[in-house]
Automatic annotation (TrEMBL), chain A:
Organism: Winogradskyella thalassocola
Superkingdom of this protein's organism: Bacteria
Protein's UniProt name: Succinate dehydrogenase / fumarate reductase cytochrome b subunit
GO cellular component terms, A-Z: membrane
UniProt entry keywords in alphabetical sequence: Membrane, Transmembrane, Transmembrane helix
TM regions (residue ranges): 12-35, 55-78, 106-126, 159-180, 201-221
UniProtKB/TrEMBL annotation, chain B:
Domain of life: Bacteria
Gene Ontology BP terms: anaerobic respiration
Identification of the protein by name: succinate dehydrogenase
Membrane-crossing residue ranges in chain numbering: none
Membrane topology: Peripheral membrane protein
The enzyme's E.C. designation: 1.3.5.1
Domain Fumarate reductase/succinate dehydrogenase flavoprotein-like C-terminal: 531-669
GO cellular component: plasma membrane
From TrEMBL, chain C:
Signal peptide residue numbers: none
Cofactor requirement: [3Fe-4S] cluster; [4Fe-4S] cluster; [2Fe-2S] cluster
Organism for this UniProt entry: Winogradskyella thalassocola
InterPro entries assigned to the protein according to its UniProt record, in alphabetical order: 2Fe-2S_ferredoxin-like_sf (IPR036010), 2Fe2S_fd_BS (IPR006058), 4Fe4S_Fe-S-bd (IPR017896), Beta-grasp_dom_sf (IPR012675), Helical_ferredxn (IPR009051), SDH/FRD_Iron-Sulfur (IPR050573), Succ_DH/fum_Rdtase_Fe-S (IPR004489), Succ_DH/fum_Rdtase_N (IPR025192)
Gene Ontology BP, a term: respiratory electron transport chain
Superkingdom classification of source: Bacteria
Alphabetic keyword roster: 2Fe-2S, 4Fe-4S, Iron, Iron-sulfur, Metal-binding, Oxidoreductase
Name of the molecule in the record: Succinate dehydrogenase / fumarate reductase iron-sulfur subunit
Family: Belongs to the succinate dehydrogenase/fumarate reductase iron-sulfur protein family.
Keyword Iron-sulfur carried by entry: yes
Residue ranges occupied by any 4Fe-4S ferredoxin-type domain in the UniProt entry: 151-181
Length: 223, 670, 248
């Protein structure tokens, strides 16, 4: 299995597998976030469950982190390799004639998403880890009630952060607009279902990021 | 030297089998000590190289392109004949043999043609085993179409790209041998001379077209499969690089050149649009199955169309001259290639050509749209369909059959052939003549073989549609690999042929001197200037119809151009680099000699046969009045020319043709 | 029409090249692009300059020899054509046309617009065939029925002309459309099944060794392919490769 990463198709395949994993993660993340709009109580309960259930904390979370790191590292590795394969650059290249902007700029949309993730981790994940595993407070309580919803709302008070998140999600949408279909193509799924899948991919790539943006704005204006 | 065709004795249907059973073979352990050079990697050369390597010989293959896959066999569209009788329509080896001899106007060698028909079925088996994706029907079995006015469906095809698929098959077989190290492939190399040691072909001098380096390559036998010489006309359907140099060089070193005047002019090509034209594009003649050919009846309409005042669709049926249907009611638009081509030229020469150059006739599908449309309406139970609906239904059928050709036409001419008739005009397509070979495919130089279009072999004076691919592959896969063993069996103890002999020195010196001449001659004219001039003479005076006066003039004129060429040619750049002008110069220099021999051969042949129409030899009266008249009494022979220093001085050797299994008949398509 | 041409000139593989400007006049809209290049070259020869070297042969779109990058696209702005089939009616009087060789590290320039595509040859040699010797005794061609759909799909894949436009158009210089087409042709036919697993692994290994980039599914190759080879062929190759590799 490690040998497979030495081949171009193997790398594509690994890239696609990590992408599938990340897309599923994003979907569940979105679903839980949406609860914060619909029902703060449910949101708190689910958040607490996710934050304390051992399978998620000790199995899924590490896999996720590895997946994220792998996807980024491999993305950059591929970019470097591909640049090397290019040789001399064209004096005039009309890429727009044959491919989408998104497909040609995955490294940029991905790069911005990485920058966003760093901020996002600083905002949420690091304080969370700190509270739970350094301070050792696994209760999820603050002043007698669940802290999750409250913390979420707090974060979206400053407008600069909301704006930053919105930009981050625009890049996520751009990334997904190519990445969704691309992942299926990479694992060899291109058949009579592809057309339908492409429609679904487009919907996914737009609805999820727009939804995240909506949630951020909702909390900014409703705290 | 008397010509010995080495045709084995015995009844025609047993000749090849008996012969194979009795020739000498080379033992497998000895084959690895024997080298064979193959020049050209089209269907003939590619299949020969692959098969020889499979047998165990060390093969060195040469192509001027950057890959064997680019040889011009790739451009053949229509299909490949084989006597499989899958359609159960009465086809047989004998029938294919008969059709080929008859189609060749009785100017081919019976035994060779029979063998070709015999191995044709093996070709299809072999190609399918290689993964060639021939067209199939819904039952999963191979599909056939009928082609070129024969009475059975025996043509196998892969869309409109049969030549491409067959060549890729041979190329894949070559690749397998290249990977095994049994073929050493020399891409972007051009053979510039053959080396003869003790009377036998023992190697070649080649130029590396990237570095300009002159290389010596030795072998125990040399196989030339370098294609035809249609580019002697400058404009033809051949590839830009197609050339006669390899064939001409062996001719100058002792190989006789046979029937150079037999050229096939293909009737359904896209017309020339101006003087800048570099080549002509062919469209499959299958188009004539559904298209009707016409020109306007009245001169006023011709003028109006040329000046754009009238559209061809505005002419009523009465105002059109469907001249093939008029002249040949029995075969109509499906007369053989030579007849259709000459008839088009006749109309255009009379002034009825329909485009600006005056060299085009219409190929009209309107009635096919209607016929198919009505048929479809019936099938789909559409009652009282409107004319528009009928046309739409009919167009869909035509599109399914010829869509890629219609698209190609539209790209080139910028007119939609679904809405307005296509324009077509004949163009030089194939040369039946070539290097003389015996039954073994060996030339008059021992150890030097010639296969595919480059030899004169199997098509006589005219080639039937879908037979070129068959011949190339038959020679390369199934004939040469056997017959060459008979010759090479004497060479098992020879050992490697050294390349430092005086024969190699001399051959290389000759090649280098010629290149030096080109580079140092500070003339004023480009190669194309001379090539175009030669082409014009060939087309005007040695083209579709010829007469003694024109041919005599042509010989003198070609000689004069040749003299001017050697005085005034200018080649830019240097010899030690990629230099396309230098490559062209060498090829055109050879065409300038071949062209003269071509005219000389045509002048000698005072009869009309196949692709060769001699104006003095036409039927004078009766129902065939004006049609080609063959003269079997005086001209039933192969004209093999021996080089004597100047093309005009070539000496004629005759191989009399005997027809024991077929009765000679005058062709009639009335 | 009158045109300005910006053409890449490079003496040989080691020389440093540069773009050079030329003017051509009285170009007919009916000319093919290569005929326009012929006019330029005739002009250059007549003025004692070296003509521009470019690959070409059949001039009817099937040999795959011609290979220019015109105004930022392989084989120019038209679709479904090679450079030899591109006509000047696609351009306007006064246009400036940029003409470059196909670019990829695996396609080094030999001279001017001529590139070395031997990498493609070596990939084919690594497995682009069915291992069957020539013999007069192969089984009858009709002994294995092949479904019309499979035969047609194999044919569609097999129409690749090996020109390299896919590599030239790809931002990653990936050769996957080319390799995918060949792998697909044989994978779709029963004759090709026996050695299918070895074939795809060997061909992909050679492709990687040649220094082609990794496919990122931009789809540029499919758009620029003169023969319309579909991206499905890449997906099929991926499947074939993964199943061959994972099965071991």
């Amino acid at each position: 299995m490690s040998g497979i990463l030495n081949s171009s198709i193997g790398r594509k395949f690994a890239m696609a597998l990590s992408a599938f994993f990340l897309m599923i993660f994003v979907l569940q993340h979105f679903a839980i976030n949406l609860l914060s709009v619909l029902s703060p109580d449910t949101f708190n309960e689910v958040s607490h469950f996710m934050g304390t259930f051992w399978v998620i904390q000790y199995v899924i979370q590490p896999i996720l982190i590895i997946g994220v790191i792998f996807h980024f590292v491999m993305g950059f590795v591929l970019e470097i390799k591909n640049n090397k394969a290019n040789g001399v650059k064209y004096a005039k290249n009309n890429g727009a004639a044959n491919s989408t902007w998104m497909s040609r700029n995955m490294i940029w949309s991905g790069g911005f998403i990485l920058a966003f993730l760093v901020i996002h981790f600083i905002d949420f994940w690091i304080p969370e880890i700190n509270t739970k595993y350094i301070v050792g407070d696994m209760s999820g309580m603050h002043n007698g009630e669940f802290r999750y919803f409250h913390e979420l709302q707090e974060k979206f008070v400053p407008i600069w952060r909301v704006a930053l998140y919105c930009v981050g999600f625009v890049f996520l949408a751009l990334h997904l607009l190519h990445g969704f279909d691309s992942a299926f193509q990479s694992v060899g799924a291109n058949n009579k279902y592809t057309k339908g899948l492409k429609g679904f991919g487009k919907a996914y790539a737009i609805i999820i990021p727009v939804g995240f943006i909506f949630i951020a704005l909702f909390h900014h204006f409703n705290h | 030297m008397a010509l010995d065709s080495k045709v084995p004795k015995g009844p025609i249907k047993d000749k090849w089998t008996d012969y194979k059973n009795h020739i000498d073979l080379v033992n497998p352990a000895n084959k690895r000590h024997i080298d064979v050079i193959v020049v050209g990697t089209g269907l003939a050369g590619g299949s020969a190289a692959a098969t020889l390597a499979e047998l165990g010989y060390n093969v060195k293959a040469f192509a001027y392109q950057d890959s064997p896959r680019r040889a011009h066999s790739i451009a053949a569209q229509g299909g490949i004949n084989a006597a499989k009788n899958y359609q159960g329509d009465g086809d047989s080896t004998y029938r294919l043999f008969y059709d080929t001899v008859k189609g060749g106007d009785y100017r081919s060698r019976e035994a060779n043609v029979y063998r070709l028909a015999e191995v044709s079925a093996n070709i299809i088996d072999q190609c399918v085993a290689q993964g060639v994706p021939f067209a199939r029907d819904y039952g999963g079995l191979l599909d056939n179409r009928s082609f070129g006015g024969v009475l059975v469906s025996r043509t196998f095809y892969a869309k409109g790209q049969t030549g491409q698929q067959l060549l890729l098959g041979a190329y894949s077989a070559m690749n397998r041998q290249i990977a095994r190290g049994k073929i050493e492939m020399f891409n972007r190399h051009e053979m510039l001379d053959v080396v003869i040691v003790d009377g036998k072909a023992r190697g070649i001098i080649a130029r590396n077209l990237i570095t300009g380096e002159i290389e010596r390559h030795s072998a125990h036998a040399v196989v030339v499969g370098s294609g035809g010489y249609g580019n002697v006309y400058f404009l033809s359907t051949n590839a830009m690089g197609s050339n006669a140099t390899a064939a001409w060089k062996i001719h100058k070193k002792g190989a006789y050149f046979a029937n150079p005047c037999y050229t096939q002019i293909h009737p359904t090509c896209i017309p020339r649009s101006g003087d800048y034209q570099s080549k002509l594009t062919l469209m499959s003649e299958s188009l004539r199955n559904d298209g009707r050919i016409w020109v306007p009846k009245n001169m006023e309409d011709v003028m109006a169309i040329r000046e754009g005042r009238k559209k061809p669709t505005e002419l009523s049926e009465d105002e059109r001259d469907y001249y093939l249907e008029r002249r040949y009611p029995a075969f109509g638009n499906l007369v053989p290639r030579d007849v259709a081509s000459r008839a088009a030229k006749e109309r255009c020469d009379a002034g009825y050509g329909v485009n600006a150059t005056g060299e085009a006739v219409y190929l009209d599908f309107a009635s096919a749209f209607e016929r198919y449309g009505k048929e479809q309406a019936k099938i789909h139970n559409i009652e009282n369909p409107s004319p528009a609906k009928i046309k739409e239904l009919g167009q869909a059928i035509v599109e399914a059959k010829y869509g890629n050709l219609f698209q190609m036409y539209e790209k080139i001419i910028d007119q939609n052939p679904y809405e307005t008739p296509m324009m077509i005009y004949p163009a030089v397509h194939y040369t039946m003549g070539g290097v003389w070979v015996d039954y073994n495919l060996m030339t008059t130089i021992p150890g030097c073989y010639c296969i595919g279009e480059a030899n004169f072999s199997d098509h006589g004076a005219n080639r039937l549609g879908a037979s070129a691919l068959m011949q190339g592959l038959a020679d390369g896969y199934f004939v040469l690999p056997y017959t060459i063993g008979d010759y090479l069996s004497a060479d098992i103890r020879t050992g490697k042929i050294p390349t430092d002999s005086k024969e190699f020195d001399e051959a290389e010196k000759e090649v280098t001197e010629r290149i030096d001449f080109f580079m140092n001659n500070k003339g004023t004219k480009s190669v194309d200037y001379f090539h175009k001039k030669l082409g014009k003479i060939m087309w005007d005076k040695v083209g579709m119809s010829r007469n003694a006066e024109g041919l005599t003039e042509a010989m003198a004129e070609i000689k004069a151009i040749r003299a001017e060429f050697w005085k005034d040619i200018y080649i830019p750049g240097t010899a030690n680099e990629m230099n396309p002008e230098l490559e062209k110069a060498g090829r055109v220099a050879d065409f300038l000699e071949l062209g003269e021999l071509f005219a000389k051969d045509a002048l000698m042949r005072e009869e009309s046969c196949g692709g060769h129409f001699r104006e003095e030899s036409a039927e004078l009266d009766g129902p065939q009045k004006g049609e080609a008249k063959r003269n079997d009494e005086d001209f039933a022979f192969v004209a093999a020319w021996e080089y004597k220093g100047e093309p005009g001085d070539a000496v004629l050797h005759k191989e009399e043709l005997e027809f024991k299994d077929i009765e000679l008949k005058q062709r009639s398509y009335k | 029409m009158n045109l300005t041409l910006k053409i890449w000139r490079q003496k040989d593989s080691k020389a440093k090249g540069q773009m050079v400007d030329y003017k051509v006049t009285d170009i007919s809209e009916h000319m093919s692009f290569l005929e326009m290049m012929d006019v330029l070259n005739e002009q250059l020869v007549n003025s004692g300059e070296e003509p521009v070297a470019f690959d070409h042969d059949c001039r009817e779109g099937i040999c795959g020899m011609c290979s220019m990058y015109i105004n930022g696209e392989a084989h120019g702005p038209d679709r479904g054509v090679t450079t030899c089939q591109l006509h000047m009616r696609m351009f306007n009087d006064g246009d400036t046309i940029t003409i470059e060789p196909f670019r990829a590290a695996a396609f080094p320039v030999i001279k001017d617009l001529v590139v070395d595509r031997m990498a493609f040859e070596r990939i084919q040699q690594a497995g682009g065939y069915i291992s069957v010797n020539t013999s007069g005794n192969t089984q009858d061609a009709n002994s294995i029925p092949i479904s019309k759909h499979a035969a047609d799909e194999a044919m569609d894949a097999a129409t690749c002309i090996g020109c390299g436009a896919c590599v030239a158009s790809c931002k990653n210089s990936s050769a996957m459309l080319f390799v995918g087409a060949k792998v697909s042709q044989y994978a779709l036919l029963p004759q090709g099944q026996v050695e299918a697993a070895d074939r795809v692994q060997n061909m992909v290994a050679q492709m990687d060794l040649e220094g082609f980039g990794n496919c990122t599914n931009t789809g540029a190759c499919e758009v620029e392919c003169p023969k319309g080879i579909s991206l499905e062929n890449i997906a099929r190759m991926n499947r074939e490769y993964l199943s061959a590799t994972l099965k071991g």
